[in-house]
Amino acid sequence: MKSSLRVAVVGDRDQTFVPHVATDDALGHAADHLGVEVEVRWLATEPLESDLSGVRAADVLWCAPGSPYRSLRGALAALRHGREHGVPTLGTCGGCQHMVIEYARNVLGFEDAQHAEYDPYASDLFVSELTCSLAGRTMPVTLTPGSTVAALYGESEVKEQYYCNFGLNPAHQSTLHEGGLRVTGRATGRDDSGEARVLELPGHPFYLATLFVPQTRSLPGRPHPLVVGLLRAAL
């Protein structure tokens, strides 16, 4: 009998949004590769403000692209649960950005840490608009040797696709890195060299954030290594 995993995808699902469809597909590809069953449940963000039962029941969390979410507070509550309770958690694109905000607020003590999509004039923007939009672009990322992400890829430089216009504010990159949410993937382009593209939390079973959308590169028989790693961490 196959093992079964309950996957909660945090995000306000839009069937017309390519990364959302790709998220479901990528989970299926990884499950087939590992020989497990997955029960995927999308959790809209507004109900999460008062009810985390779907999050607590999950073996795996994935915070999906598609921000701004209907509820910033709901998404952050789900991510906090995953971080504090050792639930394997992946955040991609908007999910990555919200992992930054959650950590800044609840671990580093920046109570006013904000995301520019919600409040572009906030005094403490941890997520800011990118100088140059990455939406629709495929760009190189250099990975830190010895990191979880480098081990999953099995290489030190990869190319990945983006759908985003926002990212970690460079002014806060060292604050986050030195505060424990380590920057383990960096841009290698001429204009944005060194900017954070992957973050991970050492000591957690799997807590990984990517500004890119790995799910769009997953194929049947060729699952994305990060999604495989996410599910494997829960087995």
Number of strands: 12
Shape: globular
Rg estimate, integer Å: 16 Å
Mean pLDDT: 94
Query: Biggest sheet: strands, sense, closure?
Result: 9 strands, mixed
Elements, N to C (H/E) = EHEHEHEHEEEHEEHEEEH
Tell me the fraction of residues in β-strands, as a range: 15-25%
What ranges have pLDDT less than 50 throughout 5 or more consecutive residues? Answer: none
Q: From the helix content, strand content and strand pairing, which structural class follows? A: alpha/beta
What's the N-to-C terminus distance? 14 Å
Q: How do the strands of the widest beta sheet line up side by side?
A: 2-1-3-4-12-11-10-7-8
Count every helix, treating DSSP H or I runs of 4 or more residues as helices: 7
The percent range for helix content is: 25-40%
